[in-house]
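step=encode ok
step=design start
structure_in=
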C-alpha cells in the first residue's frame, strides 16, 4: 500500500468518525474495505455520585421517592441475566437461521435445544457451516437477524441452561 493510500484511508476514517458512521463498506475491484466503529460507552455513574445527588436533593427540600433509595453494595440484587449462556459465532461469515430460504428456522425464542443440536448456519467463503449448540437449555433470544454479517466471537443466541 502506498503512503498516499494510507493517508487517504486515514482521512476517510476521520471523516466517518466525525459523521458518527457506525459501519462502512467499500468494494472497488480488488480493494474491499469494511470498517465498524464502536460507540464509546459512557462511564458508569458511581454509587457515591448517586448518593451525593440524593442527599443534595433532600437538603434542598425536594421529596425523594422511596423507589430512589440506593441499595448498599452488600445488598443482594436478583439479576435476570445471571446464569445465562451465550452461544458465539466460531467464525466470520453470514448468519442464516434456516437451512434454506423459505424454510422454518432451526430454533426460535422459547425453543428447547440439546447440546450438539444444529441451531443456525454461518456461511463463510461459500461453505455452509452448521453451528451446534454447546449448551442444552431454552433459547431466551436470538441476537442476530437472518442474512446478517457476523464476526468471530459475536454472540448469536442466549440460552437458559437446564
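sequence_out=
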Amino acid at each position: 500500500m502506498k503512503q498516499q493510500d494510507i493517508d487517504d484511508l486515514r482521512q476517510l476514517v476521520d471523516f466517518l468518525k466525525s459523521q458518527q458512521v457506525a459501519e462502512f463498506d467499500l468494494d472497488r475491484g480488488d480493494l474491499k474495505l469494511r470498517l465498524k466503529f464502536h460507540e464509546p460507552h459512557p462511564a458508569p455513574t458511581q454509587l457515591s455520585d448517586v448518593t451525593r445527588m440524593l442527599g443534595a436533593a433532600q437538603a434542598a427540600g425536594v421529596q425523594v421517592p422511596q423507589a430512589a433509595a440506593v441499595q448498599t453494595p452488600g445488598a443482594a440484587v436478583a439479576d435476570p441475566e445471571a446464569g445465562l449462556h451465550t452461544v458465539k459465532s466460531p467464525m466470520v461469515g453470514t448468519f442464516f437461521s434456516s437451512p434454506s430460504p423459505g424454510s422454518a428456522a432451526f430454533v426460535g425464542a422459547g425453543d428447547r435445544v440439546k447440546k450438539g443440536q444444529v441451531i443456525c448456519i454461518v456461511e463463510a467463503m461459500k461453505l455452509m457451516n452448521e453451528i451446534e449448540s454447546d449448551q442444552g437449555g431454552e433459547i431466551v433470544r436470538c441476537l442476530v437477524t437472518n442474512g446478517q454479517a457476523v464476526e468471530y466471537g459475536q454472540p448469536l443466541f442466549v440460552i437458559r441452561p437446564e
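step=design ok
step=annotate ok -> The helical segments are 3-18, 47-59.
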